[in-house]
Specification:
The structure is a homopentamer.
Chain A lengths: L1 E10 L2 E2 L8 E7 L5 E10 L8 E6 L1 H6 L9 E6 L2 E3 L1
Parallel strand pairs in A: 4-6
Antiparallel strand pairs in A: 1-3, 1-5, 3-4, 5-6
């Protein structure tokens, strides 16, 4: 899992049918002490995260399992909202 | 998912049988504010995207699921045409 | 598998249901001679690792298999505590 | 999928049984305008590609599906010979 | 697959049960002309490779298939000993 900040969202009217109704958020990977990195990607949201929140993301086939839909055309998902990173 | 721009397409007469009839597009990854990156790859097109359009792509086993064909020999797919990225 | 050091943990009250009760640790990848790298990520813990310990991690679908739960929303797991790296 | 050039092949007498009889080619990733990159890897060949040819490769679980053998111990495959990249 | 050199091995008494009895080797990725790179990782050994040998490795779900054990908690495996890379 990666520590990310939600920084935006993506609108796409024309898309693969399994993505209908999913919120697709732009996230930026953070270091464990919350510093922004250059890496950004788009993740489907399972937990209702808002812009500016710190979140946990998963990638690959795990993203489909996060939605319980093996046929989902998403390869990244937000699966938790971070309260705190303790170091 | 990645935000990409469609920049070309690939012609391959001799190919693995499951790829027959698929459009294989060259895409370039963009930053969330549409700046081009160095990363390019080839993605099979599910949604009818044209050169110059901004698209969402998926990779890995998710690409096969985007086509509903587990036996497909593609590891990247265009699954949406982006209307807008809101930041 | 990667050689990592456990450097922290993540608290997330609101999360995908399959993650309930899992310890989510922040790990830093090490070189084989234990030098820290820039790469960090979050891994679910199978073996009871503590802060400062050297561990083996797995990624992708293998992380779900480490827990024997195909439906788990985790894409990285700590699967061993390292006694020694012999070179 | 990646655009690659076939640059060599690998001989390995002692190998996992499922790899017997497979041609294992060394490939170098190219940019879409055919410039060589630093990235090289070994891919099993499905389509009969020769040294110097431009090919499409797939990675991960998709490589096994390209051979129709889920139990194959290969994580990269050549699945097409490129006639032309149109930009 | 990657061309690697076996450079060490990892001892881990406390580990996920499916890893019992597996040899876990530290490998360094090589270029096709055998030059060492910075990339190292740990791979489970299927073929009986020794320190200093050149090997082929696979990653991801393919590593589990190399052992014929879908439930194995390993995401990298040595699947062949390289006799020669011909360029």
């Amino acid at each position: 899992m990666l520590i990310c900040e939600v920084i935006g969202h993506v609108w796409a009217t024309k898309k693969e049918a399994s993505l209908s109704g999913l919120k697709m958020m732009v996230v930026r990977e953070l270091t464990p002490d919350y510093k922004p990195t250059e890496r950004t990607f788009v993740a489907a949201d399972v937990v209702g995260a808002g812009i500016g929140e710190w979140v946990l993301t998963v990638g690959g086939s795990t993203a489909r399992h996060a939605f319980g839909k093996e046929e989902l055309a998403a390869d990244a998902a937000i699966v938790g909202i971070i309260d705190k990173v303790e170091m």
